[in-house]
Amino acid sequence: MNTRRPSRNPSRLAQGVGLVGGIAALAAGAxxxxxxxxxxxxxxxxxxxxxxxxxxxxxxTLRSSGPDVVTRDGVKLHVEVDHPHIPMSERGVTIxxxxxxxxxxxxWHFMRKHFRGRHKIVxxxxxxxxxxxxxxxxxxxVRQLARDLKLILDETTAQDESVVLMGxxxxxxxxxxxxxxxxxxxxxxxxxxxxxxTSGGNMGNHSIVKGIPGELFPRLVEPLMAGLNRIPxxxxxxxxASSDVAYVVTRRGGxxxxxxxxxxxxxxxxxxxxxxxxxxxxxPAFAEFDGGKGLERLVSVETAVLAGETDQIIPVEHAYKILxxxxxxxSLIMPDSGHMGMIEHHVAYNDxxxxxxxxxxxxxxxx
Length: 367
Fold this sequence. Notes:
Helix content is 45%, strand content 11%. The protein is an alpha/beta fold.
């Protein structure tokens, strides 16, 4: 057995960090890869998409102002509110969108475009994400995110304002935990819930790397990320320099079909803006999360469950488990769809979300 100490050559260290960082980034919604040759192939594959797009999608440009919301522990949450352009008497439910791990409110781009002007929309960046302030690591847990969501509702909606909550991935977990902690608001304040590409629990032994068993994955990733946090400058430089690998990792982890290259770039940019120590801060939250009690409460409102058959981050089996708990939910299980179905298949997703909003509003009217 070779017992030589590893080389401390800077270039080798950077390469090692790039590889390990790629594995750690799996927890951020990607799949391990380091195939620069494949990147060149993929580049050619998507070149045509870039050429044929007559008008680039205006990602990151949908913006609006919002109130200053500061949590009890002093974290300033970035909030944006889109107000409808219709008379007050014609306004229906308010839609609150809750994003997932290592993303930002911009991930709701296509949903925001769809509902904008017709509904009040509330979006915010989860703590330590996007433009929100940094949180203490011990508070990067789903239970705290549920408290943050309650604060967002308190600060952005009136007492008699009915809302439909939409949550993607960790955002869906946030909503389930919210339902468990504030059951009296489900069916009164909250009249509808959409859970996109999320899990009700049992994520502790899930591996998103082919070839690494589920029970082994957490034991590998947690110490790796802890070690990387001790050399953050090297890690961040490596992440920025490895754009080719990052492109392949993002495409594989985020999507299940061929999508325009700009979709991959959009997702990659959101992920890259999340510091690696934030990735590490949140990682333990998923192993301890249990959404069972929240799902029991959500049976009383209109629901929709959306997922992708080829989601490598949260396998489709988790959606089926949620549907067992919510037998009245409308479901959309998209073939050839990855974790970011909300971008990849946004038209189909918006159709389901629109029907959810319509059902919630009919229920409010007593229809």
